[in-house]
Write a structure and sequence with these properties.
single chain; mainly alpha; transmembrane; globular; 2 domains; Recoverin, domain 1; 18 helices; ion transport
């Protein structure tokens, strides 16, 4: 009896175990048989890197960079070396406009597999001053597009001649607010999304860098939005309770605002009541004006001409504006030239950011020169001198980007863009918006500022995100 239990008891358990094993294997086989096939892997690659199940040469280049293949310059007679992407393309008779379908990519796959298996490209170190022209525009395209973009920027900046008679109108002031905000968004996002990653030498579309940069911009915008909303709310409460202020409190507020008015160039409210003669009052105002100009030599921006200030020393002012603007334009041209040596798309993106910034900047300088006593031809001549520095910077940028590493130029341009956007244009936007804010139209100015900043950021984000699908040159 015991023996029969020992032989018969494990039999159902073994049968059940065998049945479950067969069922699991059958289910797994049927599931994989329905969802997984040899063509699935090929379709996945074409969907992630190509368009309409085809690969352009630029998209194939992106795949090779992802696999770290095609970055060497090996001897064609030595198959164990790492070859350049141009050599791999030439081996398959691929030209600049070639497009690979599924069959063509299958023929190219053994080349990729051989380069990965030999591990030759993993040991290849690309020097910082690599002068390989693979994937780069031709010298004719670089110089042609560069000169075209700088000429357009220079001509666009001279539109101040047409709008100068309208500077006193509220519509012009609000249009200027929008352009200043547009320059802030475009310069800041161009530095975060394109120039800084190029300075570090990696593709901004990889490793979720665009998402991280968007979060950085979101942090800036969140604090900007919060600060503006709090100021509007607190100002309404301040105006509501203004009648409860004592005379001493109002006197203290007026004294605290003296320094701010001096920095903003608002001299009319700083002149004391006339206890003397009119000539004494005029001399006092001239002294304060001279003091403000001497103390703030680096803040000659377009916000001053809204106050109607006139300067006495025309020659010094003209040279100061011309030299500072010339240096600014030289670095702009340097960034544009270096960007075009990398790709036409990169150069156009940088040019768009500079174009958004140059219009309000050059317009402010132009009207300052007019208020300084210059004629329109004289102001145009000084603007022309500063514009020539942009052409000079373009030449240096193209030569440096073609023969040396352009990473340092991108780093310099990225830092300059961050400074101009946050330290120059942002305070200027607040100053130009002050008249609307004091006139009870703070919400209108706030909406215009938001529209400009978000438009500039949106343009650069779209250009960066779809850079692989945009073919220029």
């Amino acid at each position: 009896m015991v023996m029969s239990l020992q032989w018969t008891h494990p039999t159902p358990l073994l049968l059940l175990t065998a049945y479950l094993s067969v069922a699991l294997v059958a289910d797994s086989y049927s599931a994989t048989g329905e969802k997984l096939s040899a063509a699935s892997f090929l379709q996945d690659i074409l969907q992630r890197y190509g368009d309409n199940e085809t690969l352009s040469l630029h998209q194939l280049q992106s795949l090779l960079e992802r696999l770290e293949v095609g970055k060497g310059s090996g001897d064609p007679h030595n198959m164990s070396q790492c070859f350049s992407s141009s050599a791999l393309f030439a081996a398959h008779n691929l030209t600049h406009g070639s497009v690979l379908d599924a069959k063509g990519f299958q023929n190219f796959c053994p080349t990729i597999l051989q380069q990965i298996e030999t591990q030759a490209c993993q040991e290849t170190i690309v020097p910082q001053n690599d002068t390989s022209t693979e994937g780069r525009p031709s010298p004719g395209e670089v110089w042609g597009f560069g000169l075209l973009c700088i000429t357009v920027i220079s001509l666009f900046s001279l539109l101040g001649v047409l709008v100068a008679p309208c500077v006193e109108k509220p519509v012009f002031r609000r249009l200027l607010i929008y352009f200043i905000a547009l320059s802030i968004g475009s310069l800041l996002s161009n530095a975060l999304l394109q120039l800084i990653p190029e300075a570090f030498g990696f593709n901004p579309l990889e490793d979720s860098y665009v998402l991280s940069s968007t979060v950085i911009f979101g942090g800036f915008y969140l604090f900007f939005f919060t600060e503006k909303v709090l100021k509007m709310v607190l100002k309404q409460k301040h105006e509501h309770g203004h009648s409860h202020y004592s005379a001493d409190t109002r006197k203290q507020d007026a004294e605290e605002g003296v320094t701010e008015k001096l920095q903003n160039g608002d001299l009319d409210h700083m002149i004391p009541p006339p206890h003397g003669s009119e000539s004494d009052l005029r001399s006092d105002e001239k002294a304060v004006s001279s003091l403000a100009v001497q103390d703030l030599p680096g803040q000659q921006s377009s916000c001053y001409w809204l106050k109607g200030i006139r300067y006495s020393d025309i020659g010094t002012l003209a040279w100061m504006i011309t030299l500072s603007d010339g240096l600014h334009n030289f670095i702009d041209g340097l960034a544009i030239g270096a960007s075009f040596t990398v790709s036409v798309f990169q150069g156009v993106s940088t040019s768009i950011a500079i174009l958004c910034e140059e219009f309000p900047h050059e317009l402010g300088d132009f009207v300052i020169l007019l208020n300084a006593g210059m004629s329109i031809p004289q102001a145009l001549f000084f603007n022309f001198l500063s514009a020539c520095c942009c052409y000079l910077g373009l030449a240096f940028g193209i030569l440096a980007g073609s023969h040396f590493s352009s990473n340092w130029i991108f780093a310099l341009a990225g830092g300059m863009f961050l400074y101009i956007a946050l330290s120059d244009m942002f305070p200027e936007m607040n100053e130009v918006s002050k008249e609307d804010e004091e006139g009870g139209q703070a919400l209108t100015a706030f909406l215009i500022q938001n529209a400009g900043i978000l438009t500039g950021f949106g343009i650069m984000l779209l250009l960066t995100t779809f850079s692989g699908q945009i073919q220029l040159g």
